[in-house]
């Protein structure tokens, strides 16, 4: 329960921030694209923090590290709540991501380290259920708080999460012996290289739309520097001269670990990108825009469904095996994203999205335990932490990639759809002129406007509707993209080794 509350704080915040992002734009005086940086910097900080957290815990002790990350996450939540502008909030979100990395890694790692093998799956199931319920609580509570009070107050429940987790873990989490060997040494070159690569990537993502991407000389330089740093990081981690690598890449020789790492990239993209755009669409583009509370009520369908069916996944994975469970999950994802793609219009009623959200939950519930269990299937006990760190690093890389690619995709597709729509609503088009004349006359007769004002207002209405339809088509394309990610993940599924069939007992004659 203590681990569930600690990591539930991170799940609560992730879903809450995604929900209230439209409200931040007005308060902070920034555009939607700029507000989305709060998600991308957090994902990149999580990516950096995952491998570093294993090393740091080895230095300060597992229990002390876990308690410290809880305190740090709660403190950075207060920093986010008090941030006067975007720059300061980005700073606190980076620190929050680094602290959150320790939580998302160590709730899983702690179970593998503390629990005997037969008890790991039930323990993971219980904590996962708490995490899904935390996501549902975040969606419901943050929506209500935002509508009735202020979005800055959504961070306050983290103090309750932190207090409960600290009390339980301080009393019941055992003090483990300090590790020996490479984990207590420091891979400073590895830390520096991965930090350079991530900072370069973050600047490119944040400034790309403003500075014309690779049309900008300094972004091209950053791309080269980031790529070189990443290649050097991988080479250094695999080098025999590195006595304390952040990531034990030798484990990738195990087919179970390799397949889980590759599928983990897709898993991260699915987690971060699948329903990333739905709250923003419901809040800003739907014909009858939804409040934060209403949007949270719609979105919590997936979290509550996942929490309800997660206990049954232990038996399902044991019966059908890891590979078939992943295949079932990916089929559910593809179906969910295609239904979203089909349903997404400005006039779609909110309750219609319940079906694809339930399908999405039917993807998450088996996918995460099936992929995660494959990572440690055949790893020795003394390599479990390295295996978890490797899997979570690849998964968080996919999460960062998913948010970044969707942000870029939506911007480009919106521009494309806008230009195509404008080709059909030109003033030399007879249908367009007839609509403008009819709407202008209506506004003049019933709106109390002059003919000039009516014509100007009808032109403005046409431009606004064109922009809204273009954005809607771009969001629909985002769901089609995530369906394609699911298809691509199915193509690499043969990497996953088949589950061994236990020998049948020999019956006597």
Structure description:
- With 509 residues, the protein is mostly helical.
- The protein folds into three domains: 1-176, MFS general substrate transporter like domains (Growth Hormone, Chain: A, Up-down Bundle), CATH 1.20.1250.20; 187-243; 250-498, Growth Hormone, Chain: A, CATH 1.20.1250.
- The chain has 16 helices and no strands.
- The radius of gyration is 25 Å and the shape is globular.
- The N and C termini lie far apart (50 Å).
- 47% of the residues are buried.
Beta-strand content bin: under 5%
Name the overall outline: globular
Q: What's the end-to-end separation, in Å?
A: 50 Å
Order of helices and strands: HHHHHHHHHHHHHHHH
Provide the CATH architecture of the largest domain. Up-down Bundle
């Amino acid at each position: 329960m203590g681990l569930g509350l600690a990591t539930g704080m991170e799940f609560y915040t992730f879903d809450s921030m995604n929900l209230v992002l439209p409200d931040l734009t007005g308060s902070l005086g920034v555009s939607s694209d700029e507000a989305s940086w709060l998600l991308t910097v957090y994902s990149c900080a999580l990516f950096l923090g995952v491998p570093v957290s294993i090393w740091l815990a080895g230095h300060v002790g597992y229990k002390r590290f876990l308690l410290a990350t809880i305190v740090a996450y709660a403190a950075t939540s207060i920093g986010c709540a008090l941030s006067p502008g975007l720059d300061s909030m980005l700073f606190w979100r980076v620190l929050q991501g680094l602290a959150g990395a320790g939580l998302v890694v160590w709730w899983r790692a702690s179970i593998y380290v503390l629990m005997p093998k037969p008890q790991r799956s039930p323990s993971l199931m219980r904590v996962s259920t708490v995490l899904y319920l935390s996501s549902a609580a975040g969606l419901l509570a943050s929506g209500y708080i935002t509508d009735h009070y202020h979005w800055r107050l959504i961070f306050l429940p983290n103090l309750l999460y932190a207090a409960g987790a600290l009390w339980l873990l301080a009393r019941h989490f055992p003090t483990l012996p300090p590790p020996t060997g490479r984990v207590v040494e420091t891979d400073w070159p590895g830390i520096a290289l991965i930090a350079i690569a991530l900072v370069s990537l973050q600047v490119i993502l944040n400034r790309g739309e403003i500075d014309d991407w690779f049309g900008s000389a300094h972004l091209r330089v950053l791309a080269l520097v980031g790529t070189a740093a990443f290649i050097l990081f991988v080479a250094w981690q695999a080098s025999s001269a590195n006595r304390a690598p952040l990531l034990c890449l030798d484990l990738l020789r195990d087919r179970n670990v390799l397949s889980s790492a590759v599928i983990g990239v897709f898993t991260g993209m699915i987690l971060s990108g699948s329903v990333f755009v739905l709250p923003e669409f419901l809040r800003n583009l739907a014909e009858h825009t939804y409040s934060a509370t209403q949007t949270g009520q719609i979105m919590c369908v997936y979290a509550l469904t996942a929490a309800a069916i997660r206990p049954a996944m232990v038996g399902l994975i044991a019966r059908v095996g890891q590979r078939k469970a992943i295949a079932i999950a990916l089929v559910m994802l593809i179906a969910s994203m295609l239904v979203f793609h089909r349903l997404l219009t400005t006039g779609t009623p909110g309750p219609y999205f319940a079906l694809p959200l339930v399908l999405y939950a039917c993807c998450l519930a088996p996918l995460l335990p099936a992929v995660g269990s494959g990572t440690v299937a055949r790893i020795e006990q003394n390599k479990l932490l390295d295996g978890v760190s490797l899997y979570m690093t690849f998964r968080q890389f996919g999460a960062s990639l998913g948010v970044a690619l969707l942000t870029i995709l939506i911007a480009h597709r919106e521009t494309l759809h806008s230009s195509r729509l404008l080709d059909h609503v030109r003033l030399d088009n007879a249908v367009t002129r007839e609509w403008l004349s009819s709407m202008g006359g209506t506004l003049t007769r019933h709106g109390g406007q002059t003919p000039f004002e009516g014509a100007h207002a009808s032109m403005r209405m046409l431009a606004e509707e064109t922009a809204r339809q273009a954005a809607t088509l771009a969001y629909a394309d985002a769901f089609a993209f995530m369906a394609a990610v699911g298809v691509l993940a199915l193509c690499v599924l043969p990497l996953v080794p088949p589950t061994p069939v236990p020998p049948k007992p020999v019956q006597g004659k």
